[in-house]
Amino acid sequence: MGVNVYTFLVIIGLSGLKFTASQRQYKQIFELPESLKSMACREDDPALSECIRKGLQYGIDSFKTGIPGINLPVMDPLHIDKVSYQFANDLVKGKINLKNIDIKGLSGAKLKNIDYSRKGNQLRTIMDADIPQLVIEGNHRADVVINNAKISSKGSFTLTITNLVVKLTFHSEVYERDGYEYGRALKLNFEPNVGDMKLKADGLLPEPALNDAIVDFINQSWRQFYKVLIADARPTWEPAVIELLNEYGSYIPLDIVVLKN
């Protein structure tokens, strides 16, 4: 259960991210709430990966209400105060600041498969998930250079992503503290495949007709750019996501979620 936060955090990484979310105050947990104890998994269970999948899916299904007993806040909609994104490649370079972002639809994610394995103190978790729709709304400000032409923008946006298929791979290590085991994320990989993406935005360009034209261009051409942008931004978003994962995970012992033999 402790790793159910992984899914939503890495989805946020789709935007490429150095982000500032509303600060969370977590409490130390040494046992699962009574209502969740039946969802704990056993290390010797031949169907351990499926047990973990069911627990994570329960956490995702609860994104609209939260689960205070395991520090899981309401995440659908998920509010992010600020995102800063810097990028550079042969086609485009610049900086984008996004503020007051709301992400709707995370609770609709379905975990299709989990592959969890442990060797000594090394953990590997692979997740395959489908997300029918994400709607991301907020305000933007950007300075971008495309083919030596500088474009500055400020306005609002709505980005609708449909049929998102994601493969997440986490490499972690186990460490001990005060007689309990905890997981520490070391590395993650994020492989998204987007069915469709539609942008609505104002303020990209001062002239409304030109603004609409560039929005149309983005909606027609996004497939050429989005995976490149994610890869280029990885040095920014990966450390930020790992830091947040480890902060959350430091409050929930691994061995109350996956019970020892």
From TrEMBL:
<dbReference type="InterPro" id="IPR038606">
    <property type="entry name" value="To_sf"/>
</dbReference>
<dbReference type="Pfam" id="PF06585">
    <property type="entry name" value="JHBP"/>
</dbReference>
<protein>
    <submittedName>
        <fullName>Uncharacterized protein</fullName>
    </submittedName>
</protein>
<dbReference type="InterPro" id="IPR010562">
    <property type="entry name" value="Haemolymph_juvenile_hormone-bd"/>
</dbReference>
<feature type="signal peptide">
    <location>
        <begin position="1"/>
        <end position="22"/>
    </location>
</feature>
<keyword id="KW-0732">Signal</keyword>
<dbReference type="GO" id="GO:0005615">
    <property type="term" value="C:extracellular space"/>
</dbReference>
